[in-house]
Amino acid sequence: MEDFEYPEIENDSELDAEDTLYEHHRLTVDKGQKAMRIDKFLMEHLFNTSRNRIQKAAEQEYIRVNDVPVKSSYKVKPGDVITILLDHPKYENEIIPEDIPIEIVYEDDALMVVNKQPGLVVHPGCGNYTGTLVNAIAWHLKDDPNYDPNDPTVGLVHRIDKDTSGLLVIAKTPDAKTHLGNQFYNKTTKRTYNALVWGNFDEDSGRIEGNIARNPKDRMQMAVFPPDSGIGKHAVTHYKVLERFGYVTLVECVLETGRTHQIRAHMKHLGHTLFNDERYGGNEILRGTQFAKYKHFIHNCFEICPRQALHALTLGFVHPTTGKEMFFTSELPDDMKQLLEKWRNYTANREL
User: Fold this and answer.
1) To which H or E segment does residue 5 belong?
2) Which residues participate in catalysis according to the annotation?
3) What is d(CA 162, CA 85) in angstroms, rounded to the nearest whole number?
4) Residues 105 and 167: beta-carbon distance below 8 Å
5) pLDDT digits over 224-267, tens only?
6) What is the maximum alpha-carbon separation in the chain?
7) What is the DSSP letter of 121?
8) What is the value of pTM for the model shown?
């Protein structure tokens, strides 16, 4: 059984989650099987899983009987055909350790916290089966006899996009992964992001609530729908203005939920697309003048930070073993530092 819950879903490979599911397991209940809750039944018939993960999979409608989603309390009957679907293709290849440099912020016997560089894919997926953070972690822990990178009960607890930089926590034991996964699922973790977005805000802070689902007009984007629409997954982002540059704004975003491209989709919905976010149109000049000098300045900015200007700045959680509250802060990467400094200089000179 694979790990069902990757709560921080800022991940390109999961864009098909809303309406494309892939079969990972299929079982047919024997003729002599007595009535039994499906979560218990699957516990007895699948390896490398837990009842908690099975129940979460049922909540997400990933478990189906005779092609119909069922709850974890459903009692199996002889002849039932049980399928387990997930939002990514089944990955058969072994994860090979690769010597890829990573910045380890903290590590102990239960977990490690990594400050991921932009451009590094987090998890193997379609088109990216090597050269990922998971391969790098496997290399770092290759001498740890208790860590198996191919065991879904350990490893990544959440994800961020390839071109988003910042903090991630990795579990080194099954107990740590279950404990940390529950914190993300119950929304008790503390996460803040810094983002440079197009446009100026009328207010200094605000709250965005809107369901997130795949954009029906563009399968590579996520879109925002009304909370009572019944479409997509409930999502809430809190934001605060940190610095204004007239045509762009540096904001802090606090995630109350973790959905696919949540910040990117919510900000575009507000009319403040992330700066240089190619997938959402942020790599066009959305604010400012039509003067050639300004256009040249923006294109220089795009070259300095050739990705969406988004960084996972802080991460807080309760340690799964000690029960101690832990909080980590990372510096902005060099490309975003240089980008902000360029905007500061531009704004200062424009005001003279």
Assistant:
1) none
2) 161
3) 24
4) yes
5) 999 999 888 899 999 999 999 999 999 999 999 888 899 999 99
6) 84
7) -
8) 0.75
